[in-house]
Amino acid sequence: MQRTVASSSHLRRFHREGEDFLSRIVAGDETWVYSWDPETKAQSAEWLPAHSPRPQKAIRKQGAMKIMHVMFFDSQGILLNWAVPQGTTVNGDYYKWILQEKLRPAIRKKRPDLLESGMILLHDNAPAHRKHNVVELLSKWGWEVLQHPAYSPDLSPCDFFLFPSVKKHLRGIRFDSVEHIEAACNQAVRQTDASGVSSGIRGLVNH
């Protein structure tokens, strides 16, 4: 019911406000980037003659090394790609710091008009995002938080577009250090940004 109510409300708003609504949305979330991620079935698919036996593929686990990246983007491009230092927990205090010290300055530099027109933040219901100090900060800034139903990654542009787009450049490649993981992820983010991300925010309408 929450998914139905939220989706119906957002669609009605899109029909009223059109592109202005989408252009004000900033989507953000955290994701793990591993030292090795197996290719998807689609990526590793191969052509075989008719009636050939299906090739056997070993079950492969993700690499042991990993680093968390926090990313935010809007319909014009990537706003922030932040690698969380090893050993740091993304709790409410750290997420508040990212908003204050990283995201807001990035928006002020790259999209100054967005702060004046009234940006709309779309993040999920992770505990760090719901902490009272984060909620108070967003209220102080006057940032609207778009309603997001729980357990709905299919309604998050980061989950259905940004993270898969970035990670497709990394799958099937082994990295031997955290530094190499971070460098490769940064390059993948730049490639994704260069190829255009407007469809990520616009995809929210179809989803």
Layout of strands and helices, then pairs:
Layout (H helix, E strand, L loop, with lengths): L1 H16 L1 H5 L1 E10 L31 E9 L2 E7 L8 H19 L1 H6 L2 E3 L4 H4 L1 H10 L2 E2 L11 H11 L10 H18 L2 H9 L1
Parallel strand pairs: 1-4, 4-5
Antiparallel strand pairs: 1-2, 2-3
Helix pairs in contact: 3-6, 7-8, 7-9
Organism: Macrostomum lignano
GO molecular function, one term: nucleic acid binding
Protein name: DDE_3 domain-containing protein
Amount of beta strand: 5-15%
Q: Any idea what the shape is?
A: globular
CATH superfamily membership, which one? Ribonuclease H-like superfamily/Ribonuclease H
Number of DSSP E strands: 5
Structural class: alpha/beta
Topology-level CATH name? Nucleotidyltransferase, domain 5
Helix-strand string: HHEEEHHEHHEHHH
CATH architecture: 2-Layer Sandwich
Q: What assembly state would you assign to the polypeptide chains in this entry? A: single chain
Can you list the strand order of the major beta sheet?
3-2-1-4-5
The value of Rg in angstroms is 19 Å
Low-confidence stretches: none
Describe the main β-sheet briefly. Answer: 5 strands, mixed
Whole-number average pLDDT? 91
Work out the helicity level: 40-55%
When the domains are counted, the total is: 1
The level 1 CATH classification is Alpha Beta
